[in-house]
C-alpha cells in the first residue's frame, strides 16, 4: 500500500530536528541552503551527513565542489534559517550581508557566526536516495562550538530548544 506523502510529512514533523545552513563556494559564488538533515554518522573517522533535494542547484554543486561548511543555527537565528530556505534565494553573501559570518579556512565556504557550532567538511561519499542526494562529509575542522540553545524545526515551525535547568 503506497504511503501518502502528506501523511508522512505530518508524522515526521512531530520529531524535532536541528536547523543548519549548508554552504559551498564555487567559482567566485557562495551558495547555501537551510537543512534539517544534519546528522553525525561516525566519530572515527569523523563523518556527518546532509541531504539535498535532487532538483536544487546545490545538488549539482555537490557533484563538483569537494568541500563545504555547515553552521548549526542557534535559537536567535530564526531569520537566517528563513533566508536560506526561501525559494529563488540569492547568493549566500547577500543573505548574510550585515550578519556575523566569515569564510572557512579549510572549505572556503561561508560560515555563520554565533550559532551552536560550525564544521568544515570534505565530501567522502554521496548517493541518490529517492528525491534527495545524501552527502557524507569528513569533518576536516570544527570551526567553533558554543553553549547557545539550538534552533529546532518542529511541527512545521521554528522553535528554540529550552536549556536544561
Structure, explained:
With 165 residues, the chain is of the alpha+beta class. Helix content is 16%, strand content 46%. Strands 3-2-6-9-10-5-4 form a seven-stranded antiparallel sheet. Strands 1-11-12 form a three-stranded antiparallel sheet, with no helix packed on it. The protein is globular and about 45 Å long. The termini are far apart.
Q: Outline of this structure?
A:
It is built from 4 helices and 12 strands; from the N terminus they run H-E-E-E-E-E-H-E-H-H-E-E-E-E-E-E.
| Overall pLDDT score | 91
Name the helix and strand elements from N-terminus to C-terminus, one letter apiece.
HEEEEEHEHHEEEEEE
Number of helices: 4
N-to-C terminal Cα separation, in Å? 45 Å
How would you describe the shape?
Answer: globular
- Estimate percent helicity: 10-25%
How would you summarize the topology of this molecule?
Blueprint: H1 5-12, E1 17-18, E2 20-26, E3 29-35, E4 39-43, E5 46-53, H2 57-62, E6 67-72, H3 78-85, H4 92-95, E7 101-103, E8 110-112, E9 117-129, E10 132-145, E11 151-154, E12 157-160
Antiparallel strand pairs: 1-11, 2-3, 2-6, 4-5, 5-10, 6-9, 7-8, 9-10, 11-12
Which structural traits does this protein have?
165 residues, seven-stranded antiparallel β-sheet, three-stranded antiparallel β-sheet, 46% strand
Amino acid at each position: 500500500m503506497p504511503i501518502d506523502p502528506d501523511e508522512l510529512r505530518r508524522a515526521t514533523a512531530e520529531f524535532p530536528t536541528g536547523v543548519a545552513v549548508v554552504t559551498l563556494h564555487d567559482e567566485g559564488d557562495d551558495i547555501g541552503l537551510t537543512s534539517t538533515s544534519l546528522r553525525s554518522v561516525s566519530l572515527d573517522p569523523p563523518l556527518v551527513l546532509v541531504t539535498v533535494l535532487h532538483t536544487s542547484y546545490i545538488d549539482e554543486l555537490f557533484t563538483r565542489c569537494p568541500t563545504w561548511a555547515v553552521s548549526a543555527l542557534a535559537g536567535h537565528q530564526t531569520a537566517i534559517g528563513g533566508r536560506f530556505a526561501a525559494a529563488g534565494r540569492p547568493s549566500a553573501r547577500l543573505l548574510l550581508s550585515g550578519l556575523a559570518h566569515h569564510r572557512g579556512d579549510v572549505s572556503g565556504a561561508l560560515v555563520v557566526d554565533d550559532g551552536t557550532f560550525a564544521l568544515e567538511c570534505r565530501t567522502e561519499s554521496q548517493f541518490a536516495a529517492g528525491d534527495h542526494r545524501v552527502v557524507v562529509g569528513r569533518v576536516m575542522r570544527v570551526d567553533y562550538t558554543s553553549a547557545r540553545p539550538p534552533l529546532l524545526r518542529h511541527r512545521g515551525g521554528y522553535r528554540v530548544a529550552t536549556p536544561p535547568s
